[in-house]
User: Which sequence fits this backbone?
């Protein structure tokens, strides 16, 4: 196992304050937010249904092309369009179940597999490029990042012929186990494509992947897909934290400082932007500030949300599996102690039992954090919205300027099983829900259909709109 802490420690110093001089990355465990806080202004929100009839919707995105269309990933391997007025189009925008003559190109045998995410090129209106990330059946569940070009003559349907003709495999990431794939892809404010990958699966990170900078698992990756020669899959940005560090070089034993030696990481994956993550299924940039939030699904005890300011140079180590966010891994009781490794989360919440033998929590718990997006409306000024997959809780994570601390507020507890979310062209946050729990999964087309929802201010629900049911 390789543990790299120097870069992360430097990163903490370098981005200790945002450009506004307000938010800070926690440096001590008691600075991490827990349930029970209140966002400034104590905002009230509701979830309004946009469309239903979606089969296991697990990803959502906007093309930001002026059409207002919402693109929803169905786990089976299809992307559906919901129009600006809330109509679900009959024909899929993309159908990966038909491009392979032998059957579906997407592996869906386990609930965490499937088509996870879609992202549109920042120059989509001109080049027609979009990217999808899915688990490949022909490649034994490996993660495929595929670029496809829209036919301008048929902007709402990409035919099988068009997929085959224009498809470009940008990246192929082997997957040792069938879970902890991560899966979201998203373009950052810098124009680079960010990719989340889980630690490779099973439980407890048996491969020690989170801390191993020689593998892509347990990482947030960053690549440049805008290449001068399209025969090249992608380029590694020159300022990626391990790009220079991983290069082969002449060896000298003397005359080199310890600091210089500490920066040599031969064989490290240059695509790595951040590491020490368990299963960062969803992550989002704040469209206003450029800051980044990462929702990292936890093990048995705690769920974590990390924050990375726009000034970050990358290289953060988020601690897994030496830590589980602000807590020890493994945690064996109420007084488990361990060294703090890497960068702390800004917020965390417990499972029903936060450690073995603990009394069961009655409020403020969950099982898997699902990031939805950063809201800059409805009184939510830069607050990160996240849902819980098991309990339907909708969380708001934000910075309290007056108290100078991060807070975690439970906005409401819905009856939804959150699976994904994103920011839309109009600046609102939307979320998807499915009914595809591990022990009840009947398959991507046999589970009860899910829906698409929009977060709105509670007192501005449109007349006649269907609102997500809550438990209290």
Assistant:
């Amino acid at each position: 196992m390789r543990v790299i802490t120097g870069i992360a420690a430097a990163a903490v110093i370098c981005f200790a304050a945002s450009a506004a001089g307000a938010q800070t990355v926690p440096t001590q465990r008691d600075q991490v937010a827990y349930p029970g806080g209140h966002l400034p202004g104590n905002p009230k929100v509701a979830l309004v249904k946009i469309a239903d009839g979606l089969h296991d919707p697990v990803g959502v995105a906007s093309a930001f092309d002026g059409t207002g269309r919402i693109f929803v990933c169905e786990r089976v391997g299809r992307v559906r369009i919901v129009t600006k007025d809330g109509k679900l189009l009959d024909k899929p925008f993309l159908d990966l179940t038909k491009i392979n003559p032998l059957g579906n190109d997407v592996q869906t045998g386990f609930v965490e597999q499937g088509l996870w995410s879609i992202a549109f090129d920042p120059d989509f209106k001109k080049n027609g490029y979009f990217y999808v990330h899915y688990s490949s059946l022909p490649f034994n569940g490996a993660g495929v990042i595929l670029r496809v070009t829209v036919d301008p003559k048929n902007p709402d349907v990409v035919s099988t012929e068009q997929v085959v003709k224009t498809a470009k495999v940008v990246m192929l990431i082997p997957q040792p186990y069938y879970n902890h794939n991560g899966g979201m892809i998203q373009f950052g404010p810098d124009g680079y494509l960010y990719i989340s990958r889980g630690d490779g699966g099973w439980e407890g990170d048996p491969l020690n992947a989170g801390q191993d900078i020689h593998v892509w698992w347990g990482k947030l990756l960053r690549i440049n897909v805008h290449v001068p020669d399209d025969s090249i899959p992608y380029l590694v940005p020159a300022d990626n934290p391990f790009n220079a560090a991983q290069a082969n070089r002449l060896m000298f034993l003397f005359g080199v400082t310890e600091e210089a030696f500490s920066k040599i990481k031969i064989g490290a994956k240059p695509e790595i932007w951040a590491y020490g993550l368990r299963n960062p299924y969803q992550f989002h940039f704040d469209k206003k500030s450029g800051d980044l939030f990462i929702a990292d699904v936890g093990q048995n005890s705690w769920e974590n949300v990390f924050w990375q300011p726009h000034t970050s140079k990358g290289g953060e180590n988020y601690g897994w599996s030496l830590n589980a966010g602000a807590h020890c891994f493994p945690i064996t009781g109420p007084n488990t102690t361990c060294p703090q490794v890497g960068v702390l989360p800004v917020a965390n919440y417990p499972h029903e039992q936060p450690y073995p033998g603990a009394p069961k929590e009655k409020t403020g718990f969950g099982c898997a954090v699902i990031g939805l997006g950063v809201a800059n409306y409805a009184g939510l000024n830069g607050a990160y919205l996240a849902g819980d997959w098991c309990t339907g809780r909708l969380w708001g994570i934000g910075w309290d300027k007056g108290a100078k601390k991060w807070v975690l507020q439970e906005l409401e507890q819905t009856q939804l099983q959150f699976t994904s979310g994103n920011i839309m062209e109009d600046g609102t946050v939307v979320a998807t829900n499915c009914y595809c729990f591990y022990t009840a999964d009947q398959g991507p087309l046999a589970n009860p259909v899910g829906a698409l929802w929009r977060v709105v201010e509670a007192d501005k629900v449109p007349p006649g709109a269907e609102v997500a049911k809550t438990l209290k």
About this structure: The helical segments are 6-14, 124-127, 160-166, 258-262. The CA atoms of residues 141 and 196 lie 16 Å apart. The longest strand covers residues 45-54. Residues 1-20 have pLDDT under 50 and may be disordered.
